Amino acid sequence: MSTVKPNNDAEHFKRVRIVLVNTSHPGNIGGAARAMKNMGLVSLYLVAPKKFPDPEANWRAAGGEDLLDSVVVVDTLDEAIADCKLVIGTSARERRIPWPLLTPKECADQAVAESQVHDVAFVFGREDRGLTNEELHKCNAHVHIPANPAYSALNLATAVQVLCYEFRMSALAYERGGPVHFDDWDQPPADNKALEAYYEHLRQTLEALSFLEPGNPRQTMTRLRRLYNRIRLDDMELSILRGILTATNNYIYHTDNKIEALEKELASLRQQSDQKS
Amino acid sequence: MSTVKPNNDAEHFKRVRIVLVNTSHPGNIGGAARAMKNMGLVSLYLVAPKKFPDPEANWRAAGGEDLLDSVVVVDTLDEAIADCKLVIGTSARERRIPWPLLTPKECADQAVAESQVHDVAFVFGREDRGLTNEELHKCNAHVHIPANPAYSALNLATAVQVLCYEFRMSALAYERGGPVHFDDWDQPPADNKALEAYYEHLRQTLEALSFLEPGNPRQTMTRLRRLYNRIRLDDMELSILRGILTATNNYIYHTDNKIEALEKELASLRQQSDQKS
Prior knowledge:
GO molecular function, one term (chains A, B): RNA binding
Domain tRNA/rRNA methyltransferase SpoU type (chains A, B): 16-165
Number of helices of chain A: 11
Family (chains A, B): Belongs to the class IV-like SAM-binding methyltransferase superfamily. RNA methyltransferase TrmH family.
Subunit structure (chains A, B): Homodimer.
Radius of gyration of chain A: 24 Å
Oligomer: homodimer
Mean pLDDT of chain A: 88
């Protein structure tokens, strides 16, 4: 099309990865690869696929086999998104605790804008059950394809097709100087690995303060995850928050030591005065 | 999705028909039916299909078999579009005589607008050769899916999926009188007074932890303000954050008291033992 000047060497086509979690049918992996290739995306991650590599994946990939050759297979979602700074998970259901929810178009515009500067992940769940809540809570935002409620069972490769298509449309609009909204910032955003480390530090600290009972911290930690995931923390903000936790832990440590020391001293003095009398 | 109110009884979902010309593989007919069902379209026309009905069509249709039961099979494209007042043909190639060429989005918007009042057809050609020039010249406009030039061979069912998806997005936006957008949340946003109280509580706590020197907390507090102001905290999130500060302050208060008490006791014991000796 004369109005469209696709540029598949553009960074954004390389910087957006498709992450498929626990895929059961290799045919869907192939279908996803073909959809990506059709739309110009190149980076495919598989988290603990049930059957891969598999001839059916290559067959379904049609012209997209090269994406299967360069696929990255990992054991956990954390590994697949560790270096990503925008993670968007596909969600079919409404959540008890609603997360920021994007339309496919909003998701694509955001991904195009941010993939100019850092890596972005679109995360897809299992054919039957989608993503777990724990997996969805690792995402900055969720995207929902508003299918026909009477039959909303989108095939996995179809869902990948729809988001890759929207991404391509936004990317082409961006290359034509189309509208894209992205605010400059003084600090780079924190990556997912650093965020996970913060959540663990936070949980330990809140337990040390007996704010969380080690038993069921779930709801509260989920709300805190939603809070900090949607804020898109930058590196300096994250280091301030880590610093506050460290200061808290140091305080706990030093006062505990001091109390222990005082109690020891007290005990030995009592002993001495008992012996004297 | 509570924000999306799809209305598949709306005229436009009934008035837009998908026309497949000379389809070779029954699997693609089934795939097209599933894509239509997913997106809420109901009217499928087949022009001289090579193999239909066929078990593979039903198998690929998954939940969309009902569309296959009500499918209309005709011999010529003319019959399939006779009563339509807007006919849009899919075109992969640029034409010697350029026709009005729409993007999928433009095609969907036009179809939604016109299907309020009359019938609309999206026409798809053969898997291998698409539509003939003669067939394309029966169309009011052409639509092109700008796929990756390096691999633009869209599967027929995929092309149907993309146009039905765009149609659904435009239809939902039309029904809502606006674009699909997320705006509901489970908690009301915190008001400014509550936020200011939080910042003060936070500042005092960070000074008690000697994380901030009472002298110049400026930079850090400013960054923390920016962080929590841009997140748009809701009431429950704010009460969790206040709860953490309260737990921290309680810890500081109790340990300080305990240390003070221990030191008193120690001092008096020392006095007593001095008097005895």
